[in-house]
Amino acid sequence: MQTTQSPTLTTSQLPQVHEPRNDGIPLDLDWVMSAQANTSAIERRAKTLPGRRSVKKDYQAAWLCKAISLMDLTTLSGDDSEGRVRRLCAKARQPVRADILEALGMPDLTTGAICVYHEMVATAVDALQGSGIPVAAVSTGFPAGLSPFHLRIAEIGESVAAGAAEIDIVISRRHVLTGNWQALYDEMREMRAACGDAHVKAILATGELGTLRNVARASLVCMMAGADFIKTSTGKEPVNATLPVTLTMIRAIRDYQDRTGIKVGYKPAGGISKAKDALVYLSMIKDELGDRWLQPDLFRFGASSLLGDIERQLEHHVTGAYSAQWRHAIG
């Protein structure tokens, strides 16, 4: 069994780098239609991933701290309140108990971002002042993306005006399912333009796209149209982030970077709740895309319950004992 080296994250090395924006390229239908996905081969490769990497002790703690720094701490519930969002923002500022962070030598560790509905953007921006933690807003009729198009565009503008530095948009799945790639490209271009200086993450809702080939082609079209990130899911579908979908999407990212020189980010969201799963995703990213993608400007976890399990693992590393989940509550 191979051992993945520690990412050597320290507080003095918390990433401040940012890739240039993806301005996109003209739609290349020949490239899109040539994209294929060997489902059985992808699934076989994905099945091998959990057993191929083993990280222990200090190496594991370093990787788990890295995972926290790449996390979009999220609340997207109908009963969200200002109090809940402010508690979540406090957790983003100090994602692990102070004594554990001190023991790890990581007193300044924070999450990568906070992700909320538009209604809570202003509250989150206020609560995070001075922290450097960006606010991401889900937009464009999240999660279904079926509201009138002009309202979806207006919603992006409202979230940017409220202070959102990142916008998570949802694509129209019907364009993928009917193979209308020009319509998907045009939609994504207009949404990208509406975001202005805010980075845009395109949510593909992969659990509703039918095939991995559709996932690969939709990934390419969204990147051609200017997506800064491509993201698996809203977290509201029956099937969210999976290893086969991740492998398909990050190989599309690698292909796009090879052909254009442009690096696009990746965000798996939904269904990642255990520290061991986070380690598998990180090792896959390192293997397939390289160390540069292990930075928050190019990789994020869309998760909240994941943080609680990581914190328990870090306490076990420091103290040698597991604690109850209530000792690491998010809110």
UniProtKB/TrEMBL annotation:
Pathway: Carbohydrate degradation; 2-deoxy-D-ribose 1-phosphate degradation; D-glyceraldehyde 3-phosphate and acetaldehyde from 2-deoxy-alpha-D-ribose 1-phosphate: step 2/2. The keyword Secreted does not apply. Keywords: Lyase, Schiff base. Residues 1-22 are annotated as: Disordered. Pfam families: DeoC (PF01791). One of its GO terms (biological process) is deoxyribonucleotide catabolic process. It catalyses: 2-deoxy-D-ribose 5-phosphate = D-glyceraldehyde 3-phosphate + acetaldehyde. InterPro entries: Aldolase_TIM (IPR013785), DeoC (IPR011343), DeoC/FbaB/LacD_aldolase (IPR002915). It is an enzyme of class 4 (lyase). Residues 1-16 have a biased composition (Low complexity). Its EC number is 4.1.2.4. The keyword Lyase applies. Signal peptide: none annotated. GO terms for cellular component: cytoplasm. One of its GO terms (molecular function) is deoxyribose-phosphate aldolase activity. Gene3D superfamilies: Aldolase class I. Belongs to the DeoC/FbaB aldolase family. DeoC type 2 subfamily. This is Deoxyribose-phosphate aldolase. It comes from Yoonia sediminilitoris.
